[in-house]
């Protein structure tokens, strides 16, 4: 059993390598499709053409695009993401200083969305067509429908401006994490809750569940020992995808709450046409999404042996 699972995991990891190469290709060329000339932006509107040309040579923009990509891959293999054209600091340093704040925000939102989403989905699946079920369904629809920036603004209006309970932005105190993490987790929480409810309802109507109840097993034993594990596979899929999406969703949340993370860094880099920073941040988001999907695939094989041998 262990050998089969290890082989399954290795195959999934090897299959992710071409995808990672494709990600670097897409990120590199999409960044260069952005409008505007970074050399002109750095030099200023009053700079001469000679000054702009000199900066363009320094940035390597005069070389053919395939050559630029070869240099990008060679540097990437050695862990070199280049230097910011604005601050002249290494991209890895710029990202490293902002990553802890974004990681903390995304991790907190992930814990909230998975824990509350799965728990509420289980609860309402055992109380179908009750007032609790209808209330949670309405809240889930609201969570899916409300944009993260508008939800964040409403949270600030209520809890910061109105009640003066929580800070409206920044990261000066632990309490400043509450509002942005709640705003960021709303969509993922609602999606996970709906998937958990749907999967649990389908599982609870299976014949083996009826057999377990006919044998006199208690409701909690049937729900948590027999039904939940079989219902987890689609839930893990949604939870994994939503967890990866939270990192990208942190861009709007960080701007709304003035959170000093990677999202703020990316927006500033786009405005300044800072190609190395944009490449580094987008590549980080893409690789994170790829890794999360890889972990989800491996968890499939761990939870359900039929998948790894199928």
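Q: What amino acid sequence fits the structure above?
A:
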């Amino acid at each position: 059993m262990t050998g089969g699972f290890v082989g399954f995991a290795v195959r999934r990891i090897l299959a992710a390598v071409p995808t990672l190469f494709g990600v670097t290709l897409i990120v590199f060329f999409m960044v260069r499709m952005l409008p505007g000339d970074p050399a002109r932006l750095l030099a200023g509107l009053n700079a001469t053409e000679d000054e702009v040309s000199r900066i363009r040579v320094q940035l390597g923009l005069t070389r053919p695009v395939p050559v630029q990509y070869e240099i990008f891959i060679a540097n990437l293999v050695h862990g070199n993401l280049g230097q910011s054209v604005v601050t002249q600091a290494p991209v890895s340093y710029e990202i490293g200083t902002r990553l802890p704040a974004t990681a903390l925000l995304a991790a907190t939102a992930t814990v909230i969305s998975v824990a509350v989403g799965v728990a509420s989905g289980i609860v309402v699946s055992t109380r179908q067509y009750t007032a609790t079920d209808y209330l949670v369904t309405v809240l889930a629809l609201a969570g899916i429908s409300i944009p993260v920036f508008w939800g964040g603004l409403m949270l600030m209006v209520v809890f910061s401006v109105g009640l003066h309970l929580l800070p409206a932005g920044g990261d000066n105190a632990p309490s400043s994490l509450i509002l942005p993490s709640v705003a960021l987790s709303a969509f993922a929480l609602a999606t996970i809750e709906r998937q958990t409810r749907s999967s649990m309802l389908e599982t609870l109507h299976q014949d083996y569940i009826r057999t377990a109840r006919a044998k006199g097993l208690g409701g909690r034993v049937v729900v948590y020992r027999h039904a939940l594990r079989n219902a987890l596979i689609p839930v893990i899929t949604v939870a994994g995808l939503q967890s990866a999406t939270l990192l990208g969703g942190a861009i709007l949340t960080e701007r709304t709450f003035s959170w000093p993370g990677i999202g703020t860094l990316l927006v500033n880099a786009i405005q300044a046409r800072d190609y190395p920073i944009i490449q580094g941040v987008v590549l980080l988001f893409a690789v994170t999404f790829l890794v999360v999907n890889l972990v989800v695939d491996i968890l499939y094989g761990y939870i359900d042996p039929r998948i790894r041998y199928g």
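Q: And what stands out in the fold?
A: The mean pLDDT is 79.
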